[in-house]
Request: fold
Amino acid sequence: MEAGSTETILTARGISKSFPGVQALSGVDFDLRAGEVHALVGENGAGKSTLACIIAGVAKQDTGQMELGGQPYSPASRADAEARGVRMVMQELHLIANLTVAENIFIEKLPNRFGIVDYGKLNGAAIQIMEQVGLADIDPATAVSSLGIGQQQMVEIAAGLSRQCRILALDEPTASLTDKEIELLFYQIKRLKADRVGIIYISHRIEEVMHIADRVTVLRDGRLISARPTHRLTSNGIINMMVGRDLEQVQLRHAGEVGPVALSVQGLNLGDKVRDVSFEVHRGEILGVAGLMGSGRTETMRAIFGADRADSGSVYLSGDTQAAQITSPRDAVRSGIAFLTEDRKGQGLLLPMAIRKNISLMRLDDVSRFGWMDESRERSVADRQAEALSIRCSSTEQSAAELSGGNQQKVVIAKWLYRDCDVLIFDEPTKGIDVGAKFEIYNQLGKLAEKGKAIIFVSSDLKELMAVCDRIMVMSAGTVAGIFDRDRWSRQKIMAAALSGSVADSV
Reply:
């Protein structure tokens, strides 16, 4: 895709930024032209989000200068940057849960008459924006708290698209989106390009970058590695620059012999979101779960885990003839079931607490003696897990809130690995994680399967499901639309099942 203009609207020179124990950016140069998409790529902790936050006034650089439209630019705050036409849709959601979708989209400028919000006008304007991003089926008066993570992401994007700007930074905007929603987002990006808006696009999905970006800047360990037009790059070339090593030959999981059934779900129902779902997963197996947003994937997993109370149905463990009594997550964990939620920030971590505290939380009995915490033991356990998952941090004493989104996700994974459950449900475990870290997680899942663990791997990324899973279960409209063995599946078959909206015979 060719750049829309040679007019430079933003320049940043020698940008450096440090946080406690971490040098996030070191003398980075960056520029953006009107009407172009300039992608920022790199592993977690490479400095991508930090650079975008500095440009958007969310953070302040330690050294370096910026110009906007040829004039000195040093925003004192996010509001200051927005007043000058620079906006950012951040990776972590910043919606107000108890407000409606419409209120969140227009929170900065609610239409009113004599100081009273004009909800008719507000909802009408919101409908127009929502249609552009695939939210036409949602009532604008719906509370944001009732939406799924992917739908909340679209509301955040809709809010960003609703405001006039010269520069729009999008930080991992497609992390929770379906293919259809990504297409709608890309259409809006093209519309903004035509209006000469400069787009800073941060993503770990290299195929997306190659498709949408005009130029690509690669960062590694806070340093500028390369800044080139996209047509002069290849996907493998970008990945190699990001990680400093060749991942092309990395071997993904080779399926081994599976053991007996570890988890059997029979006739699970939860309103109209989960309808008569039945399946099983064996020890030593990675069962993938695919489906479009709203297909019931997450709702099914939450019902199994006891996070939501099922209307009917049974869960059997390790060949038991008696159904497990799971009425809460506590029951599930005691029964040997782990659940890595897709909402790491809201449900997966205690953000103000140290990394070591988050990791040890699931096995306090193992890091305590006679009711007293053994901090030396806790620290040793956390350090070992952090090293195994390559968690980028100054130490495990650092708070989880200070980590990048991808490294926060790794802490959640470390927590459950330490718990050592027999059945592990991973809901979007690689969301917001860079390509190098993804391979580390795939490797961890493979090792767990080799140890006889039963893995359920829920993902919106069909490519990764096909790379690491032994079987793939496809859900559509709350039902199981098909279960495909590795030697019988194809992208076309899986997508057809995902779009079917009705139960199909298992393959």
Q: What stands out?
A: Confidence is low (pLDDT under 50) at residues 502-507.
